[in-house]
Amino acid sequence: MTAVNDDLQREMQQLEQLLGDTRARYHLRRTPFASSESLIELDREIRTALAGTAAPPSSPEIHQLIDRLRALDPR
């Protein structure tokens, strides 16, 4: 793999980890309930992007998803 592909893989793993942590926090009621609808929609977007059915996500796309997820569930 090239360095770019390695970086993209690490970013995708970071996004997956953050999504898993957010899901766990939500189920433990540590995430504000008011953001639940947005979290559900973003979760769906992230899973679709990570599945890469059409094309794998780009690095900027992954960073945008990470930023949006952190904004909904700040720690």
3D structure, described in words:
With 75 residues, this protein is mainly α. It has one domain. Helices cover 73% and strands 0% of the residues. The chain is built from 3 helices and no strands. 15% of the residues are buried. The model has no long low-confidence stretch (mean pLDDT 84).
Give a quick set of tags describing it.
75 residues; mainly alpha; 3 helices; 73% helix; 0% strand; elongated
Provide the gyration radius in Å: 13 Å
* Major sheet characteristics: none
Stretches where pLDDT is under 50 for at least 5 consecutive residues are: none
Helicity level, as a percent range?
A: over 70%
The H-and-E topology, N to C, reads as HHH
Strand proportion: under 5%
Number of helices: 3
Distance between the termini: 34 Å
The computed structural class is mainly alpha
Mean pLDDT: 84
Q: How many structural domains are formed by the residues?
A: 1
Overall 3D form = elongated
Number of strands: 0
Summary of the model, kept short:
The protein has 75 residues and is an all-alpha fold. It has one domain.
Write the layout of secondary structure elements.
Elements (H helix, E strand, L loop, with lengths): L2 H25 L8 H16 L7 H14 L3
